[in-house]
Write a structure and sequence with these properties.
With 266 residues, the chain is α/β, with parallel strands linked by helices. The chain has a single domain (2-265), classed as 3-Layer(aba) Sandwich (Rossmann fold), CATH 3.40.50. 41% of the residues lie in helices and 13% in strands. It has helices at 9-23, 40-47, 54-75, 92-97, 130-144, 159-178, 228-239, 242-253, and strands at residues 2-4, 30-34, 82-87, 148-151, 185-188, 220-225, 259-265. The protein has a 4-stranded mixed β-sheet with strand order 4-5-7-6. β4 (148-151), α6 and β5 form a beta-alpha-beta unit. α3 runs antiparallel to α7. The two termini are 18 Å apart.
Length: 266
């Protein structure tokens, strides 16, 4: 089960892992924490708008959901295995720090929403609070019972990414209290960390290596090898995110390497 902060992070960090699990006969669920609808530069670039409205941001989020479904289909997933929680893009850190319980719930400054879209919630009447997001993640883990969970690490420099780790960790703690036998291994894939990864290595065959300035030198990194076919499929999946390629194609394609890096949590 992969928890991706935004539509595209799962393909950048774990597209090879997804393919490998599916080829081995395993099951994969990809859970998107947000719809990626709080990205002003992306909306302006995609829609040529200097002052986007809340409706523009909501349409942008819908476009990113469609891109995600195409990317997941490229990797071999069915639509039923893709879950959009619809919590606020650029707001997950606020849910963790200021809106953990509510009321009031957090209000997105982009979409102006205070709760996920109708039909997107796992727990009825969920609002933009950290408590409700944790409950939704816990329900998904309990229902799917994964033996492996992958998400972004707390050291990731994007606030949504580091907050995603903490929400997943909180949910896992709650699940283990109720289901001691449910104890999945946790992997983390780094996306944002300064100028890492260097984009000059994109699609050249050079391998990803951990950033030298990573703050925790004692963690255990695993290099997961990809075949040339898996790299090609990963690249096609990344290119499905047209709205993001418009803004940061070099960065996106810098993850198209013959390996993926994961931090193994003990």
């Amino acid at each position: 089960m992969i928890f991706s902060p935004h539509p595209d992070d799962e393909s950048l960090g774990a597209a090879g892992l997804i393919q490998s699990v599916l080829k081995a006969g395993g099951q994969v669920k990809v859970v998107f924490m947000t719809n990626g609808d709080g990205f002003p530069a992306g909306v302006e670039q995609a829609d040529h708008l200097l002052q986007p409205t809340a409706a523009d941001y909501r349409r942008y989020g819908a476009a990113r959901r469609h891109e995600a479904l195409r990317a997941m289909a490229t990797l071999g997933l069915k639509a039923r295995d893709v879950i959009f929680l619809g919590f606020p893009d650029a707001g997950l850190a606020s849910l963790l720090k200021k809106f953990l319980t509510g009321p009031p719930p957090y209000r997105s400054p982009f979409t102006l929403a205070t709760h996920p879209l109708a039909g997107a919630t796992i727990i009825p009447h969920a609002d933009f609070t950290g408590k409700d997001l944790t409950r939704e993640i816990a329900r998904l883990i309990t229902d799917f019972r994964p033996n492996l969970v992958a998400t972004t690490p707390p050291q990731d420099r994007h606030p949504d990414h580091s907050a995603t780790y903490f929400f997943v960790h909180r949910a896992l703690t709650e699940v283990r209290q109720q289901h001691p036998d449910l104890h999945p291994k946790v992997l983390a894939f780094l996306i944002h960390f300064g100028k890492w990864p260097p984009d000059q290595g994109a699609e050249t065959g050079s391998r990803l290596v951990p950033p030298q300035s990573f703050p925790d030198k004692g963690i255990h990194w695993v290099s997961f090898p990809l075949t040339s076919e898996e790299v090609a499929t990963k690249t096609r999946a990344i290119r499905q995110y047209y709205t993001q390629m418009l803004v940061m194609s070099r960065f996106m394609l810098s993850f198209a390497r013959p390996n993926e890096l994961f931090i193994v949590e003990h």
